[in-house]
Amino acid sequence: MLIETLMMKILMVCLGNICRSPLAEGLMRQKLNKFHIDGEVNSCGFESFHIGDSPDYRSIQVASAHGVDITQHRGIQFKPSFFDYYDRIYVMDRHNYMDVISKARNENDKKKVDFIMNAVYPGKNAAVPDPYYGQISDFEKTWELLDMATEKIAESMINKQKRP
Questions:
Q1: C-alpha 15: how far from its chain's center?
Q2: For 18-50, what is each residue's pLDDT tens digit?
Q3: Mean pLDDT in the chain?
Q4: What is the pLDDT of residue 7?
Q5: Is 66 inside any structural domain?
Q6: In this structure, what is the dihedral angle of CA atoms 73, 103, 105, 149, given to the nearest 10 degrees?
Q7: What is d(CA 108, CA 117) in angstroms, rounded to the nearest whole number?
Q8: Which residues contact 113 (CB under 8 A, 6 or more apart)?
């Protein structure tokens, strides 16, 4: 049975769209399915150097080990028009936040943007460290943080469900 909710469109943003945001997208998609939530999730990066690229092989490996397939993802770049389409835009760190906010056209756009870890630690603006220059263990730590955050986001979506 599908939980009766307002369809929520979520965008995950990191720097290059090959490590953290594809993991967050895959995890959020998994949570939407797990909780039977009617929603849509995508991810993008702010920089252009990975447009069209597959996720980092370590992100693919970690996601796969947890039963999530992100192999079909291809990197895309953030566009200001995304403010019109997405209801919530989650960023991984302060740099991503400042980049996205710099493209906001108005206060309504800015209200859509939040640090993903604020779902777990409200108001702390905690970062999800970029594992790109690290080891597979860094990607696992990224997975763990994003798993906690996406679980909380999904729970909040359930709590906002429409009541008959």
A1: 12
A2: 999 999 999 999 999 999 999 999 999 999 999
A3: 94
A4: 86
A5: yes
A6: 50
A7: 21
A8: 89, 90, 91, 97, 100, 101, 104
What pLDDT is recorded for position 59? 98
Q: Measured between alpha carbons, how far is 127 from 110 in angstroms, rounded to an integer? A: 18
Sign of the CA dihedral 114, 125, 44, 11?
A: negative
Furthest-apart CA atoms within the chain: distance in Å:
49
pLDDT of residue 6: 63
Domains held by the chain: number = 1
pLDDT(3) > 50: no
The pLDDT score that the predictor gives to residue 2 is 44
For the chain, how many residues are written? 164
Is there a domain that residue 90 lies in? yes
The CATH number of the domain where 19 resides is what?
Answer: 3.40.50.2300
Instruction: Please identify every residue annotated as catalytic.
Output: 14, 20, 130
* Domain span at 13: 6-156
pTM confidence score: 0.94
Cα dihedral 143, 132, 62, 135 in deg (nearest 10): -100
Q: Is residue 162 part of a domain?
A: no
* Assigned domain for 164 exists: no
